[in-house]
Amino acid sequence: MRHYATELPMMTAVEQKKILLEVNDVSVAFQQRQVLHDVSLQIEAGEVVTIIGPNGAGKTTLVRVALGLLKPTSGTVRLDSTLKIGYLPQRFTVEPTLPIDVRRFLQLTGVRDLERLQSVLDEVGAGKLLDASLQGLSGGETQRVLLARALLRDPELLVLDEPAQGVDLHGQVDFFALIEKLRVRRGCSVLMISHDLHLVMAATDRVVCLNNHICCTGNPEVVTRNPAFIELFGEEATKALAIYTHDRDHRH
User: Fold this and answer.
1) For residue 63, what is the domain's CATH number?
2) pLDDT 10s digits, 207-227
């Protein structure tokens, strides 16, 4: 039986925190292959939650279910019907024969005000790209333009599926720093999928380790010590991540 709800009580009785999105006991199967099994997840206002896991763990499937793009085989998804969501997809390609500049691409969102388009590009560090060809952008520039498009919705929840994909290491550091600034400036929550464990651990409040089911969850320091995390990523990853976590917590 499928259950899919769209109304969510906005405050919990105990913590009195606004819950933007809630996934309860969700399972997904494709042609008898179990992709997700009994997954539960909550996103609270103002927090950054990162989903990590190996390829095929069901990370993108979980996000698609959470956004209502895919119905689960079983379980429920609850979200506020007025919630504004900005989404940066994992893959984005532009037809080479289709000439389109950044201005026109952003206007496809329905926003025509050039001053607002320029403002959001400035906010993501892509202010000089308004008239640039979309096909001619580098990987990092494309991600910033896609982020600008997501921000035009003034989202309460920003969903980023592998946001640093195709970006060099320096660009990844800058991009995750930008996400943190946006979270603080706009007061939005962030739900992120990433394979880059080192950078994620320094940029997230809560980690969800997924491998078709939730193996472990918690703040980065707790998760890196969890046996399930160590089994998936190895002792060396745990040692390296501990250094990043320590540096973040003791930054002056």
Assistant:
1) 3.40.50.300
2) 999 999 999 999 888 888 888
User: Tokens at residue 170, please?
Assistant: 């320096």
Which of 167, 13, 19 has its CA nearest to residue 83? 19
> Could you tell me if 134 and 23 lie in one domain?
no
Q: What is the sign, positive or negative, of the torsion defined by CA atoms of 4, 48, 55, 146? A: positive
Please indicate, yes or no, whether the overall pTM of this predicted structure exceeds 0.70.
yes
CB neighbourhood size of 143 (10 A): 26
d(CA 104, CA 214): 41
